[in-house]
C-alpha cells in the first residue's frame, strides 16, 4: 500500500539475542508538516544510544518504536514552513531521540537539525557522521568554548578519553583542525593506530595512571578534557591532570556520584554534552545543528576531515540490525558502523 512503509522496530525491550528484540514492521508513511522535511532514507548508522534505548527494561509499545538517530537520504517533501531545503536535496542529520527514528524507508526530521550532505561522500559514508559530529562539535566549541581558529589554541592541550570510538574518531579530527595538541586514551594497538590516523599526537592507556603517563610525554596538565568513556572510572585521574581553570566535558552519564570538590581549588569547570538537548527542548538555537553540519560538510569537501565509517552492512531487515546492535554492544567498535538501506 502506498501509505505504508517498511521499518525495523520494537514492541518490547529485550536482549539483542532475542529474535523479538528488533522486528520487521510496516508502519504508516509520515507526512511533512511545519518545519519537517520528509526524507527517503538511503543509509543509517548504529550508535550506542540505539542499544541503550533498546536494552531490556519494563514496558511495552502498542505501536512499533523505531530506533536510529543517524541518517543520510533524499528530501521527498517539505512542510509548509520549510525554508532551507527542497525536494531532491541530499541531506544528512541525527534527528531527535524523542521522535521516531530513521530505521525506516522514510523519515521526518526538523529542517533546523539537518544539512546538505558532503558532496564528495556517498550516503553510507555521510550517514556515519551526524550524531558523533554534533556531539563532538558541541562539546568542543559550544560547551567548552574552544575556538575553532588554530591561532587561538597555540600551546593548548586536550585529553580525549576514548579517542578511537565513534565520537572520539571525529573529535580528534576537529581538535587537530582547531590547532590543539591532542592526547588520546586507548587500550589496544589497533585503536592507537586509528586515533593516530585521525591526528592524535600522543597516547596513554586509560586503564593506567594518567599523571604518570602524561609526564612520560613531558606533559604536566591539560587545558581541556573530553570524556567519552565511563566518567566515574576516570574522574580522579581527570581531576588530577586538568589545569587550573580548565574544562572537563563528558557525554557519559555517571553510575556514581562525582566528587566535585576534587576540582574546586582549580576553579575547573565540569560540563555535560547531550546532542539531543536542542531538538528535545526546541531551544531557540536549534539552528546551530544545521549550521555545524553545514560547516562540517565544507570541511569534508575540502579534505580537512574524513568520514569515520569503518564497517558497512546492508539491508533494512531486523536480522541485519540485530547483528549491528550486537557488534556495537560489545564496546570494541573503532569508528562507526553503517547500514545501507536497499
Account of the protein in words:
- The chain has 342 residues and is an alpha/beta fold.
- It folds into two domains: 184 residues, Quinone Oxidoreductase, Chain A, domain 1 (Alpha-Beta Complex), CATH 3.90.180; 140 residues, 3-Layer(aba) Sandwich (Rossmann fold), CATH 3.40.50.720.
- Strands 3, 5, 6, 7, 8, 15 and 16 form a seven-stranded mixed β-sheet that branches. A six-stranded parallel β-sheet has the order 11-10-9-12-13-14, with helices on both faces. The chain has a three-stranded antiparallel β-sheet with strand order 2-1-4, covered by helices on one side.
- Strand 10, helix 5 and strand 11 form a beta-alpha-beta unit.
- Helix 3 packs across helix 4 and helix 3 crosses helix 9.
- The longest helix is centred in the last third of the chain and has 15 residues.
- The radius of gyration is 20 Å and the shape is globular.
- It starts with a strand and ends with a strand.
- The model has no long low-confidence stretch (mean pLDDT 96).
- It is found in: Cytoplasm.
- One of its GO terms (cellular component) is cytoplasm.
- One of its GO terms (molecular function) is oxidoreductase activity.
- It holds the Pfam family ADH_N.
- This is Zinc-type alcohol dehydrogenase-like protein.
Amino acid at each position: 500500500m502506498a501509505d505504508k512503509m517498511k521499518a525495523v522496530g520494537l514492541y518490547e525491550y529485550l536482549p539483542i539475542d532475542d529474535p523479538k528484540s528488533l522486528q520487521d514492521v510496516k508502519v504508516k508513511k509520515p507526512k511533512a508538516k511545519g518545519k519537517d522535511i520528509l526524507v527517503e532514507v538511503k543509509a543509517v548508522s548504529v550508535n550506542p544510544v540505539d542499544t541503550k534505548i533498546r536494552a531490556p527494561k519494563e514496558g511495552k509499545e502498542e505501536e512499533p518504536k523505531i530506533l536510529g538517530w543517524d541518517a543520510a537520504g533524499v528530501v521527498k517533501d517539505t512542510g509548509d514552513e520549510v525554508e532551507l531545503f527542497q525536494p531532491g536535496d541530499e541531506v544528512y542529520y541525527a534527528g531527535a531521540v524523542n521522535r521516531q527514528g530513521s530505521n525506516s524507508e522514510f523519515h521526518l526530521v526538523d529542517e533546523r537539525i539537518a544539512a546538505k550532505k558532503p558532496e564528495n561522500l556517498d550516503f553510507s559514508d555521510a550517514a556515519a557522521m551526524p550524531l558523533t559530529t554534533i556531539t563532538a562539535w558541541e562539546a568542543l566549541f559550544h560547551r567548552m568554548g574552544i575556538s575553532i581558529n588554530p591561532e587561538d589554541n597555540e600551546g593548548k592541550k586536550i585529553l580525549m578519553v576514548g579517542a578511537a570510538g565513534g565520537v572520539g574518531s571525529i573529535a580528534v579530527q576537529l581538535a587537530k583542525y582547531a590547532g590543539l595538541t591532542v592526547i588520546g586514551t586507548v587500550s589496544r594497538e589497533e585503536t592507537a593506530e586509528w586515533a593516530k590516523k585521525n591526528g592524535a599526537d600522543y597516547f596513554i592507556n586509560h586503564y593506567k595512571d594518567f599523571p604518570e603517563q602524561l609526564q612520560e610525554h613531558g606533559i604536566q596538565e591539560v587545558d581541556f578534557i573530553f570524556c567519552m568513556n565511563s566518567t566515574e572510572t576516570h574522574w580522579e585521574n581527570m581531576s588530577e591532570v586538568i589545569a587550573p581553570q580548565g574544562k572537563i566535558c563528558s557525554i557519559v552519564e555517571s553510575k556514581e556520584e562525582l566528587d566535585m570538590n576534587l576540582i574546586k581549588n582549580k576553579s575547573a569547570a565540569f560540563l555535560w554534552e547531550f546532542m539531543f538537548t536542542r531538538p528535545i527542548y526546541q531551544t531557540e538555537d536549534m539552528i546551530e545543528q544545521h549550521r555545524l553540519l553545514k560547516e562540517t560538510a565544507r570541511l569534508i569537501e575540502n579534505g580537512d576531515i574524513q568520514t569515520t565509517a569503518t564497517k558497512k552492512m546492508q539491508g533494512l531487515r531486523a536480522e541485519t540490525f540485530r547483528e549491528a546492535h550486537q557488534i556495537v554492544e560489545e564496546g570494541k567498535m573503532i569508528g562507526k558502523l553503517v547500514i545501507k538501506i536497499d
